Amino acid sequence: MPKSVTPYKDSDLGKKEQVAKMFDVISGNYDGLNRVISFGIDVNWRKKVLKIISDSKPDTILDIATGTGDLAILMAQTNASKIVGLDISVGMLEVGKKKVAAKNLTDRIELIVGDSEDMPFDDSSFDAITVAFGVRNFENLEKGLTEILRVLKPGGRFVVLETSNPTKTPYKQGYKIYTKYLLPLIGKVFSKDDAAYGYLSESASVFPFGEDFNNILRKTGFIDVKAMPQTFGVATIYSASKS
Question: For the chain, give me the number of helices (H) and strands (E)?
């Protein structure tokens, strides 16, 4: 299991509650800051997720840790009739709901408050499930993945986009310097929460990636597991399905 990292070291709250608090605080400038931090490359990564999901021709899609709804909104480009975005941060969802309304997608996209480790859905409810930069925020990773497997339909597609660590020189060294020093500094300058981007950086550095995460998916019960590193390995797209 990955090392437990929390946003607020001196808090008595559990990781789940701390993550919700953190994202509530930074929700107002999260989108803009994210574009700056990733140099806008995250947009292309999400488009690759869209392509994978579109190929499976889903009618119902669940986007977990949907945040401000970027990926859920992108999924509207599929022919899915129903897209649900779930997140524990009310603040992030409020931003997302405004974006959904502005794009006239309220009839297809529903954003709801919910816990990824205890979801309010029946077994085998969705044809496809996505998570972008959210699995490392799970309090109990295997419990969250097991819950995802439960609500995914047999034969359904599960796609994860998550940060990872480059393993080749000089990208490995450059990425380490960027995430350890520059990313927290940028976050501190532009964010209301000094701890937020320090946490996001630290949690990314200790989260299992590549074959390690593939093995966790297999252990949970997923099949057809595949990892696809992106941009020198700073992120990875994982694809899996349910038997």
Answer: 10, 7
